[in-house]
Amino acid sequence: MSDATPAKTSSRLPSFLRRTDPAVLTAFACIVVLLLVGSLYSRNFLSVEYLLQQLKVASFLGVIATGMMLVILLGQIDLSVPWSVTTGAMMACAAAAYGPAGTALAIPFGILCGVAIGLVNGIGVAYLRIPSMIITLAVNAVAQGLMVVYTGGFSPQDSATAAMRYIATGFLVPGIPNAVLIWALVAAATVFLLTRTGFGRAVYGIGNRERAAYLSGVDTRRVVLIAFALCGGLSAFGGVLLAGYASKAAQSMGDVYLLPSIAAVVLGGTSILGGRGSYLGTVAGVILITLLQSILSVMQMPEAGRQIIYGVVIVAMLLLYGRAPASR
After folding, report:
1. What is the rounded distance in angstroms from the CA atom of residue 37 to the CA atom of residue 39?
2. Annotation: CATH topology of 31-38+45-321
3. Which residues, listed in sequence order, are joined to residue 248 by a DSSP beta bridge?
4. Predicted structure pTM score
5. In whole angstroms, what is the distance from residue 205 CA to residue 215 CA?
6. Which end of the chain is more exposed for a tag (fewer CB within 10 A), N or C?
């Protein structure tokens, strides 16, 4: 009798709730709680204008976290995100200084610089078998050094192009920021890639057990290389959007996005050991992190305190959802 009761209870739930990862449901529940808590500090917290502004801010983190999710699904990590973001922003703004041709190519050039960083990471992980934590940290340091040499250690003087500012702050559809539309397009492409292509199935397969994926005929090295290249490109694209939002690039502008991008992914239920996770969870994690940042700002929480909170969140989610099953 006691065994049948839970089954009856679960059968009454809508089918989409039964199929949804508990971590995703938890993340959305936390979003509701944060909205209620935020409304206690400010009456404008639940206004449409404020929520759209928060969604716009979340879009920048969402684009960056998308690339991080692809790498984490492989069971890897990318610690070069901070300077991939900064390099993409700086190089896009730098290209704008070279006349009309440079202005037209600024955005793709910035993204390609991020792809180049990702390719170096991917070659190191896939072909040289260097642990991702080591190679990406080293590449991040190299990218930082190159940008310091390029700028002479000073803040870059180049400004964002009109196109960069438009895609980051404009409104193609009245009432909906362009940044939100771009994140929606990136999200749709990612969901299609992960659920409807052989590449997506290979990513999950490698994350579950790389050797088994290799023995089944998957070119694991090529998949890892592509995933890291996509992560670098998306990080740089996030930097381009941030430069458009601020009208210029800045030194270390990507540093504040490393821990939030990882936290957003694991908050959404993606296993940091790889092989499990959905993009819906990442969306929930990004929104949750953005609202948390907003509330901490209202509470005047110092940056050190925010970093502690992100670290605690990552550890807690790792303990809850990230441990490998015994059969793995």
Report:
1. 5
2. ABC transporter involved in vitamin B12 uptake, BtuC (1.10.3470)
3. 159
4. 0.90
5. 11
6. N
